[in-house]
Write a structure and sequence with these properties.
It contains twelve helices and seven strands. The protein has 301 residues and is α+β, with helices and mostly antiparallel strands. The strands form two sheets. Strands 1-2-3-4 form a four-stranded antiparallel sheet. The radius of gyration is 20 Å and the shape is globular. The relative contact order is 0.10.
Length: 301
């Protein structure tokens, strides 16, 4: 495993140094001395994205940054991002950001689709029960490591802006509604929930640990914390959203089922309900909570 991680880290270095060239699978695989077929599996299993998706999302993120923080013409930004025309750049940018490059520039609010991946070179291999025992309430000293993981899983939370998020995170920690899981000094799982609405407002799992049962362990922990609620809900991407890297399927794999369509902070989403979350015997069944505009998260009022 360490050799695989080292190889993927070297590949990420290669990609980041050539974003302006639009590096492809064959180029990156050759740079780390692997066949493209073997390396494709290695990279996707470790990062959770294909080389194509990672490169595209990183290039669009850097382009979005230039749109907000520079006066460079959109055509020049498109060419620097590896696109052959302004129209082809506009088409994919609009599909991923839900607004045109021109409108994005006018709003002057930068938020990333994908930040550079930073991997844990020596991940632990613990059992699911070990993870459950180590999920604990977060404290303010956990914030730096927490934010490192937020930046790693940013692809699941469109429109997330760090300044606003940090304010909400501190409040969630104060209320005891933020849970964290660590592997030594690396934060590998985080969750923010709200008792008042029975909702999971944020769940982030380190890509290297997504097959370790951690997400299910967090949901079980949330069920304990949200016992008075008849339902546990979450919002995620709508079906067919090109910006979705698999988060919708992830929630469905945990047993969440589709509910109503929403628009949160101007972004089209869908609410999901955890079908296994039922009141315990003797508990009154509360009224169905109304959906909240709480993405990426919002503290209780």
């Amino acid at each position: 495993m360490p050799k695989t991680i080292q190889t993927v880290m070297a590949a990420i270095d290669c990609i980041e140094s050539r974003l302006h060239e639009k590096p492809d699978l064959e180029t990156v695989a050759a740079a780390v001395h692997y066949s493209k077929y073997h390396f494709h599996r290695m990279f996707t299993d470790t990062v959770g994205l294909t080389i194509h998706d990672y490169v595209q999302r990183r290039q669009l993120t850097e382009a979005a940054k230039r749109l907000v923080f520079s006066d460079r013409p959109i055509l020049e930004i498109a060419l620097a991002a590896g696109y052959e025309s302004q129209q082809s750049f506009t088409d994919i940018f609009t599909a991923m950001y839900k607004k045109s490059p021109r409108r994005y520039r006018e709003e002057e609010k930068f938020y990333p689709l994908q930040l550079r991946y930073i991997l844990n070179e020596h991940p632990a291999a613990l059992r699911v029960n070990d993870w459950r025992e180590q999920i604990v309430p977060a404290v303010k000293e956990d914030i730096p490591g927490w934010m490192e993981l937020v930046r790693l899983v940013i692809d699941g939370f469109p429109h997330l802006q760090e300044e606003q998020y940090l304010k909400q995170l501190r409040e969630a920690i104060r209320r005891g509604q933020a849970l964290i899981l660590k592997d030594a000094d690396t934060t590998i799982g985080i969750m923010v929930f709200r008792r008042a609405t029975g909702s999971i407002d944020f769940l982030g799992i380190h890509p290297q640990y997504r097959r370790s049962g951690i997400a299910k362990a967090f949901c079980e922990k949330a069920r304990q914390e949200l016992a008075p609620s008849a339902q546990i809900s979450v919002t995620t991407f709508r079906a067919g959203d090109r910006a979705d890297t698999g988060h919708r399927a992830f929630w469905q794999s945990l047993g969440f089922t589709e509910a109503e369509l929403l628009v949160e902070f101007g972004y089209p989403t869908q609410r999901f309900i955890w079908q296994d979350a039922r009141p315990r015997p003797g508990q009154p069944v509360p009224q169905k909570p109304q959906p909240k505009r709480c993405r990426p998260m919002r503290p209780d009022k």
